[in-house]
Structure formats: C-alpha cells, structure tokens
Amino acid sequence: MPAVSKGDGMRGLAVFISDIRNCKSKEAEIKRINKELANIRSKFKGDKALDGYSKKKYVCKLLFIFLLGHDIDFGHMEAVNLLSSNKYTEKQIGYLFISVLVNSNSELIRLINNAIKNDLSSRNPTFMCLALHCIANVGSREMAEAFASEIPRILVAGDTMDSVKQSAALCLLRLYKTSPDLVLMGEWTSRVVHLLNDQHMGVVTAAISLITCLSQKNPDEFKTCVSLAVSRLSRIVSSASTDLQDYTYYFVPAPWLSCKLLRLLQCYPPPEDGAVKGRLVECLETILNKAQEPPKSKKVQHSNAKNAILFEAISLIIHYDSEPNLLVRACNQLGQFLQHRETNLRYLALESMCTLASSEFSHEAVKTHIETVINALKTERDVSVRQRAADLLYAMCDRSNAKQIVAEMLSYLETADYSIREEMVLKVAILAEKYAVDYSWYVDTILNLIRIAGDYVSEEVWYRVIQIVINRDDVQGYAAKTVFEALQAPACHENMVKVGGYILGEFGNLIAGDPRSSPLVQFNLLHSKFHLCSVPTRALLLSAYIKFINLFPETKATIQEVLRCDSQIRNSDVELQQRAVEYLKLSSIASTDVLATVLEEMPPFPERESSILAKLKKKKGPGAVSVPELDDKREGGELNGGGDRGPDTAAMSASNAVSRYVLVASSCLFMYIGFVCKNNGVLFENQLLQIGIKSEYRQNLGRMYLFYGNKTSVQFASFTTTVSCPGELQSHILSLNVQTKPVEPLVEGGAQIQQVLNIECLTDFSEAPLLNIKFRYGGALQNLSLKLPVTINKFFQPTEMTSHDFFQRWKQLSQPQQEAQKIFKANHGMDTEVLKAKLLGLGTALLDDVDPNPENYVCAGVIQTKGQQVGCLLRLEPNGQAQMYRLTLRCSKDSVSMRLCELLAQQF
Amino acid sequence: MIRFLLLFSRQGKLRLQKWFTAISEREKKKIIRDMTTMVLARQPRTCNFLHWKDLKIIYKRYASLYFCLAIENQENELIALEVIHRYVELLDKYFGNVCELDIIFNFEKAYFILDEFLIGGEIQETSKQIVNRAIEASDMLQEGDSSEWFEVELFG
Question: What stretch or stretches form a coiled coil here (chain A) (predicted)?
C-alpha cells in the first residue's frame, strides 16, 4: 500500500496516484493517464452495472486526472448518478466532481439541480449542507434560478440546524453576487439582520459576510445592523481571552468575527445615536489600548490575530474621518509599526498610513514620520515594502516637503527595481509639476528623470515638460540653457534629444547670444545625435532644423545642405523623406516673412487635466490615485496644459502635418462608411500597416476576420489589439469576443496575421465598437484606434413581399416616430446598377414591381437581435434632374429608423 | 472575499486549487503559472503580501508546501494569513502531522475539509472543534446508510 490514506481509503486510487508519481517523464505520465482513461471508459460503458464504490473510485480518479491539468470529457453522468446515492461518501465525491468540473451542459444542470432539490428537502442536515456547498461552489445562473427563492427560507426557518444556516447564508451570498437580480429582498431580510444576535458564533460569522454584502447594496434596508454590530463587537472586545472557548484564537477572542464586524460598520457613516456611538468609540479605544499591552503569547498567530483587528479598527477610524483624537492615536500606532521588526507589520503600516495621509486631521501627524519612511525606501530588503514606502511618500507630499521627497525619490530611482520604475517616474513627474514653485526646479527635475531613467519616461512625461515650458515664458531661457548643457553629455537618452530638439527649436534664440551656444554650435550638437535616433525623433529634429532656419538665417546654408543629402531627401522612410523635401523647398522658396509666419513660436497649450495624471490613473485603475491635495489650492492651475496633443504633431506646423493628420482620420471614417453595404475589404491602410476585413453575418450573430499586414520590412513588436464597446454598446452588443490566441505579439516584416471576432447583437445599437492597435515599430510606439464596421444593418434578413403586402405594412407603420426621412444631394453617380448593388449589400430584399414609379426603389427586411426582431421598410426616390434623393424608412422600432436613415444617407 | 486558494510545492507542483469565482480553465492555468513564479521567486524573510492586479496575494510556506491566497483589495491581510494557518491546523488535526503526501493521496479529503471551513470564499466556521467533528463524523459514516447517518449528525 503506497503511502497514507485516511478514512475510507480507495486502494485503487492510491495505487494510481502513486503510479503517476513514479512516472519519470511527462510522456510516461500521459501514457499512464491514457491507459487509465481507457480503463475507466470501458468500465463505464460495460454491460455490468457498476456498484457505488467502483463508480465513486473511478469518478475520483477522473477528478484527480483533471486536477493534474488534463481534459476530461466523460464521467459527468456517473458523477450525477452518485448524487442520488444514499451513501454519504459516494454522494460527497459526486458533489466534489460536479463542483470542480461543472460546465454549462444544460441537460446535466437539470439533473444536478434535481439531485440538489432532493437533498435540500431531505431534512437531513448533512445532505443539505452538501447540496448547499455545491450550489455555492458552482454558483451558476441556472442554479440561482432554481434555488434563489428556496435558500432564504432555509436560512431563517426556526427549525434549521446551525450548520445548515451557516452554509445557507454563504450559499445565498454567492448567488447574490453572481445573480443579484434573482435574489429578491423580502420578509427574510429583517430576520437575517438579527442573526447578528445569534447565540452560535459560527452562525454569526457566516451570516455577517452576507449581511455586509447586502448592506453595501441596500444600506437603508439594513441600517439596523449598525447598533446590533456595535453591541456584538463590544461584547467580544470586553470579553476575557478564554470566554469564547473555541472561538478564541491564540488568546484573541473571535478575531475573524471582530474583523467582519468592523468591516460591516465601514459600510455606514458614524452612528447617529449618541449611546451607540459612545459604545463604539469605547470599543475602538479598547482595541488601541490592547495594542500597548504585553502579548499573551509569543506565537505569531497571536500577534497576527490581534493586529488584524487593530488594522481593521484603524480602517474604520479612517473611514469615519471625524474623530481627531482617534486618528492621531491610529497614526501613532502605525508609526510604531513602521519600525517593528516584523516585515509584515512595516508593510501594512506603510499601506495604512497612505489612507491616513489624505485625512486633514492626520496629514500633519503622518508627515512627522517622513525620515522613517525615507529610510524604509533606502534600506528595506523587500521590494514590496519599498514600493509601499514610495507610495506613502507620494501620499504625504505637500508644498512643505516636496523638494525633499522628490529628491529622495529621484535618488531611489537610480537603484529601483525595474518593475516599479515607470510608476515612480510618473509620480516624480506629477509631484514636481504640482509643487513647483519655481519652474527651473521643475525643469531640472524632469531632465534628471530622463537622465536617470530615460527608458521609463513615457511620452506623456516629456510632452508635459514641453507643454509647461511653452506656456511659461519665465522658464524658457533657463530650459534652453539646461537642455543645451544636458545634450553635451556624450551619451544621452533619446528622450533628452527629443526634449532638447524641441526646446532649442523654439527657444534656442534665447541662449544664442553666448558664443559657447551660438546657433551653429546648437545645431551641430543636435545633429551629432541625429544618426543614433529612431525615426520619430529624427522627424522631430528635422522640424527643429527648419525652425532654426527661421530663427537664425546664418544656419540656413548648413541646414539646407543637410536636408539636401541623399540620406534625407531619399530616405526610405516616407515621413522623413517628405519632411526633408518639404522643409528644403519651404526654406528655398518662401520669403522671410512667410517663413516667419509659418514657423512662428508655438502658441500656449490649452489647459486641461495633466496627461501624466491621466496616465497614472490608467495604470493604477480609477480611484487608485489621489494626488495629495491638502494644503494646496493652486492658483489658476496654469500648468494644466493640453492632454492629448503631443508636441511633435504641433511642432510640424511648418509642414502640412496637421492637415495630413486630419486626412488620415477622415479617410478612416470614409472607409468605415464604405463598409455599411459590404462585408469585405480594406478597413485601414497607411505606410506601415494594412488592415483587411472579411465578415459574415447570420441572424443576430456575426463573425469578423481581421487581417493585419505589416507593410514594412521590419518586425512589429508588442503587437496587441483590443476591442472595446463604448458606453451603451456594452449592454447592446455582447461578446465581441477576441477568440483564443488573439494575435502574436510579433509581426514579421511583410507578414500578415489574422484575428477572429465573434459578435452577437443583443438589441439595436448605433455606436460602433472600437478597435485599438498598439505596436512598436523601430522603437516607437504606434497607437491606432478605429471604428469597426459593425452596423445595425448587418443583422438584416431580407424579406420578400408583394406590392399589396408592402403597402399594407407601410400603412401599419404610420406613427410619426416610426418614420425617418432624409432628402440629400447625391454624392456619387446615380447609376441604377450601382444603386441596386448597394441596396442588396445593405442586407434587405430589393422588391420589384412594388412602387408604382419604376424609378423608385423599395426594400424590406427584418433586423435580428437576440431580444427581438425589428421589421424595416425602405423607400429610396432618386431625382436625376436635381441630383437628389429622398430616403424614407419605416421600422417597428423608432431608434432603428433613425439609425438606418443616418447610415444610408451617407451611402448614395 | 477570498478569490482562490492554491497549494503548491517548492518545485511549483500544484497540490490543491480552489476557485471561489467562475474562471475559465485557460485563465486558471495562467494564474497558477503567475502565482507559482511570483511566490517562489520571493526571498526568505520578506513579507507575506504582494499586490497582483487588483488583488492582494497572501502566501505562507509550511515545510515543503506554499499556501497562496488571493483576497480582494479591501480585505485584511493579517486575518487572511490566519485563514491559511487555521486550514493548516485543520489538516494537521485530521491527518496527524500533515505532510505534502497526505494531501496528494487524500486530495478529496483536503477539499472536504476546506468546504467545511470556507464557502464561496467566506469563512463558514472558525471553530476547529466543530469543523473537525463534522469531518470525523462523515468518515465514520462512510458506508452507513442515511438513517444511521441522521443520528450521528445530531452532535449539535
């Protein structure tokens, strides 16, 4: 007998497990498993009816195989049979298998639900518990539909055993979380609240999780729980460490329940009733006092349990944010933990202090710990702790300590772990901007950032420094001088070259008086970096050069020579070539006046939210970031410059870059519109990338193949695509499912990759889903957002009908809102065949001999959504002489008429 | 609430997995890979907590096994650490000086014990005695029929 086996050992199972363990290789394991699977399959298929024990054993083996990571495609039926066994262990194994392996096979779910129903009504508490565990483990919608009304009844029935109540409470919680709409509040809710008073601590512990969740969603309905929770908490806190018998954990009375009670109270504001509030404050004080008492045990479990309650109490104090005395005590307690020898406590103290730092009562108290926190940042061995320290420094930063904190964070950056550098960079950039009193400090800080961690300085950060320099003329000279100096380093980061190129291009004249930074010296310095830079940076430098020609006519000849050389005007990169050609032309034909106008200094950026802050928010998720806002009512907020306008596009005001940008966007729109009446074609194309689409639709379902072609000879790296549905779409078109293996992250030069989207239309919609594509091309991040041509007409089913039927329906749809009409000028030729093809492409049936006027077109179709069908009739009346159309739509749903009319009016 | 619990060996072999929310098999495999690499890479005597996506990861090593728990962001780390410990105590009490092999060969028992302790990612019963009595009672009943069973359950 190999190794141990307890309870009703299944010998065969133990032998099998030990065989698997003895396998020397993955192949041997797979071979052994396949042998076993074949054996089990033949047993299940055999004529001889298997006894319960064997069935249990084989089901258990299958479960083991599944848990090893192999697929199991049979045995479900046998497991379901076990559910109706009278033998407890057989039932138990059946339920375990179902819990782990259930899939949404509807046939099986019905059988499983039946077995569960029998067990729930068996009045056998053990069977009831098994059934409840299973519901909680699976938690599917089908189960919620079947049992959501039954379980509350079990939970509050007077004769239900405690263990069943516990299972029922948590089972109900699971169903409430997965299908809140199916768990209806009712008479049971008030009785559930009173479970907080139950004699059995286990029942209270289980019930409070349910009550907390329900209170979060329906605070008013459950607010009586506040006073009940306070009195329960008070009884626990004041009990001696042995009073609660087995609910005392390492000399701490009921730690789990205490934490849950404190968490429940955090769903509500401080109690209004003075007596309740007094009692609660007393509890919190007792908990804080206990922290100062000598420990009752040296075991870590004792201190963990005790401190778990303490931290939860501190969370509640911070949540209330109304008791200055308690807040300061909490802060002092955390201060002690900052120096504790337990790493866990230091970590948690740093984390907890972050929230405390945002309270006006305790912000100052938190600040007194600055030296300890800086020390933690420098000396902690554990990166997670250092990261918490960095977070706390960020949170406690204000005008009084900004310079110190920014300096410490900068010096930490030099050795910081790679995983947190980008975030650190963003934080430093935000603090430097927010608390900049003099902007030369700000410029220094950002340039230091680029120097120390250039690779982690995202575009947003260097865009931002440029926005600020442009918007503040008192710092422009200093900025020019500083970048000039920074560029003299033999190796400087490309981001420095970008900032340098931009700033010297705009403000190089401010330092040109000094012979050490004369125009030619500046130009030569910049140009010495040119050949080491990526395409986007070179493009930016070319713009800087043309600006130089305007600022310093004496550099014109030198720069023209540079532009004229083959590596520029014949560059294989279209963008560079175009800029070189255009700038060269511009500099030779335009008069000084024209040049000066075209190449004028950039206007100030509009004031908006800091793009860096937006980036940090995106990184950490909304709500995760709060810039310390305390003492700082900023004057005017003059720094809040433009969000999405990168200075590079702006820098190109000289060339036609701006209009080119618009062109790309509008041609995308044009292509999008073009897809209304066709399913296949090219959605997007630029010099780098081509995106083709093939799509097919049936009923309310669609499948779209996207083909991404790399037009260059260079690989695209980190190629990712995401499809998102704006606003209302989320609920309207479901599962624009990027199916498995989304896309390979590398697209080789000249290669094409494919992606499949599955689409289901739930109800009618008007917004299109968005496709976002990101990839790296030669080091530069490319980011592209396109509308996917999924329009409501894709879900049309053509309907043939006679003239009589057509006009009868037409009359039925006569309410004014059912009709949408547009009269518009023809955008294209009015060729009959082209029109017919378009109307067919729309998805409707084109009906002949219906309209008395043979010049007119009429169409009929039904739009299939999951929830409903929308009948649509269309009439298009061309007027060849006036080159106009009149388009009329009548649909059984108003919004559909509107949308179709908008879509179609752009087609003809 | 607890989102999942994983037990794995120092070699990264998964010994037990319990998921408290619906997750695809593909996603599970990815999480298991992430957790084992992340946790196994940690230096000794570092703290027991990590941030991962929007979750907190609480882990602790007992002999050759790592216990790794994912909890939601607002949950209490220290009490979660003691959830792990209580589960270890329950296993220990049942198997008597539990070791990795016990869990390998009696994986179904390890699941049953967990079900008595946690349901749907929340604590059902913290009393060691009550959980143990429930498990032992079910062992005693292994081959009995339901009527017999009924009486034994009435331990209260």
Answer: none
